[in-house]
């Protein structure tokens, strides 16, 4: 059974109240005990009127009382102050009967302690006065000889006051416990509502409690968690879409060459009067299409290999300028053969990087293949190297037809091409840039496209220096 937080608060408040009452009672007992203890040790208790009184008041020795800051007065039966030493709070030498009665009645309210004794033989009152340093007086008085009616009335009043007190207390405790419980249950309710929405698939659910206590931390954690789940879900959706698109693209790209191969093979098998010229043409077409399909599958295999956890580079410390010079040297024959021009700008520096040379050179191979494949003869290919903070940046550029702005990011995705018709003729797999980017990233670097370069395309290969 669920226990309501407001009820738990109520019982704890009542418990605290009970405890407070018990502690207060204990405090009262201690106070009355302490009052007795203190009272007994005050100066006034050391010099009571009884101790110094004499039948003949002129014999009284008031010196000790006066020395301790007190005073001694003697009032005779005609209310005349006939003797006065030290502190005098009467202030008159002759009192009326009313004045003396008032003095006696009000003595307990004044900040003085009066000890008054009547001497029957000398017929006088001896008054010993001390200024009050502290007055502790607490006691509940009950006299069994009191009038029964008074007792009954007093009991009723006490019972009524107790009842009113307890009712007010119960009402306050109940209201306050509800209020305090709401401080907890309301944020909890909002958080559980947010969790419910998340569970129902609404990943945009967030909680705004407008609080600055511990719940604010919980809210922050919840919102962070929701944001992460939302991000994760978007990524998952995106990668699911990418996967679907990839499968579609692969099947589309494989369908054409395989259909051609099938068509030409059928022709070879069924056509009876096949001329030598036709046979060569058909076989040529079969070869080209199977080559294309093979290329696509090989690139696809390489790309998926790089995604597998078993894919490991074998990086070695390499002097990158020297490495790039060798790469450029190897580029010269195919570029010249294709009628392309070239410019290389590689500094004479000793810059070290860690790379897997055969894998890394695949980047240049793919970029060169593309540059030659998609641009006209006469295009200038330039390769340069510069240092940028902790990185080395190699720029592989051409001043050819370029790649449109909107494809700057997407061109590195598998099967993304500028012009599908053009590409089916030129025969690429559509995976060259995707593979090259993955290789660069596996080296803790990156491959990006800078379209602003000379109207053509400029690919930036970034790799960290050692
Ligand atoms: P593909 O096998 O189609 O060449 P890539 O991933 O290597 O696949 O290249 C993707 C597309 O980018 C190419 O189809 C082409 O349209 C475009 N492209 C790549 N490099 C260049 C370049 N140097 N000049 C113009 N277009 C290019």
TrEMBL record:
Q: Does the keyword Nucleotide-binding apply?
A: yes
A GO-annotated cellular component: plasma membrane
Which GO-annotated molecular functions does the record name?
ATP binding; phosphorelay sensor kinase activity
The source's superkingdom equals: Bacteria
Query: Known EC number(s)?
Result: 2.7.13.3
The membrane topology noted for this protein in its Swiss-Prot or TrEMBL record is:
Multi-pass membrane protein
Q: Which CDD domains match?
A: HAMP, HATPase, HisKA
Ranges of residues in domain Histidine kinase: 249-466
Record field: catalytic activity: ATP + protein L-histidine = ADP + protein N-phospho-L-histidine
Main location (coarse class): membrane
- Localization terms from the record: Cell membrane
- Which regions span the lipid bilayer? 12-38, 157-176
* Species lineage: Bacteria, Bacillati, Bacillota, Clostridia, Eubacteriales
Q: Where is the HAMP domain?
A: 182-234
Alphabetic keyword roster: ATP-binding, Cell membrane, Kinase, Membrane, Nucleotide-binding, Phosphoprotein, Transferase, Transmembrane, Transmembrane helix, Two-component regulatory system
Q: Which organism is it from?
A: Acetobacterium wieringae
What name has this protein been given in UniProt?
histidine kinase
């Amino acid at each position: 059974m669920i226990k309501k937080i407001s009820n738990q608060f109520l019982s704890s408040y009542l418990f605290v109240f009970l405890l407070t009452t018990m502690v207060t009672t204990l405090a009262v007992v201690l106070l009355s005990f302490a009052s007795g203890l203190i009272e007994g040790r005050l100066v006034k208790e050391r010099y009571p009127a009884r101790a110094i009184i004499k039948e003949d008041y002129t014999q009284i020795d008031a010196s000790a009382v006066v020395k301790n800051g007190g005073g001694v007065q003697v009032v005779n039966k005609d209310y005349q102050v006939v003797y006065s030493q030290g502190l005098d709070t009467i202030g008159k030498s002759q009192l009326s009967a009313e004045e003396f009665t008032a003095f006696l009645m009000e003595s307990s309210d004044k900040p003085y302690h009066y000890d008054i004794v009547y001497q029957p033989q000398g017929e006088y009152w001896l008054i010993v006065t001390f200024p009050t340093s502290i007055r502790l007086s607490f006691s509940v008085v009950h006299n069994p000889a009191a009038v029964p009616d008074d007792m009954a009335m007093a009991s009723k009043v006490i019972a009524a006051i107790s009842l009113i007190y307890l009712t007010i207390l119960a009402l306050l405790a109940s209201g306050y416990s509800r209020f305090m419980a709401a401080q907890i249950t309301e944020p909890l309710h909002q958080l559980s509502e947010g969790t419910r929405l998340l569970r129902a698939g609404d990943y945009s659910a967030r909680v705004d409690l407008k609080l600055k206590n511990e719940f604010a931390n919980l809210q922050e954690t919840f919102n962070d968690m929701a944001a992460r789940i939302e991000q994760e879900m978007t990524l998952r959706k995106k990668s699911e879409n990418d996967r679907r698109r990839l499968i579609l693209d692969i099947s589309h790209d494989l369908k054409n060459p395989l259909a051609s191969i099938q068509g030409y093979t059928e022709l070879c098998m069924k056509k009876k009067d096949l001329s030598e010229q036709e046979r060569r043409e058909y076989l040529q077409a079969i070869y080209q299409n199977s080559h294309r399909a093979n290329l696509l599958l090989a690139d696809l295999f390489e790309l998926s290999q790089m995604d597998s956890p078993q894919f490991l580079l074998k990086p070695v410390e390499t002097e990158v300028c020297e490495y790039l010079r060798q790469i450029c040297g190897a580029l010269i024959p195919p570029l010249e053969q294709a009628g392309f021009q070239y410019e290389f700008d590689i500094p004479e520096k000793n810059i070290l990087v860690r790379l897997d040379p055969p894998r890394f050179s695949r980047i240049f191979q793919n970029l060169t293949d593309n540059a030659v494949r998609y641009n006209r003869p006469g295009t200038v290919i330039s390769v340069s190297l510069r240092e940028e903070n902790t990185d080395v940046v190699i720029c592989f550029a051409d001043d050819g037809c370029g790649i449109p702005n909107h494809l700057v990011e997407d061109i590195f995705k598998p099967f993304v091409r500028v012009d599908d018709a053009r590409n089916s003729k030129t025969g690429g797999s559509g995976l060259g840039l995707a593979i090259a980017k993955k290789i660069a990233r596996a080296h803790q670097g990156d491959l990006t496209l800078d379209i602003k370069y000379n109207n053509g395309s400029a690919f930036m290969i970034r790799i960290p220096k050692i």
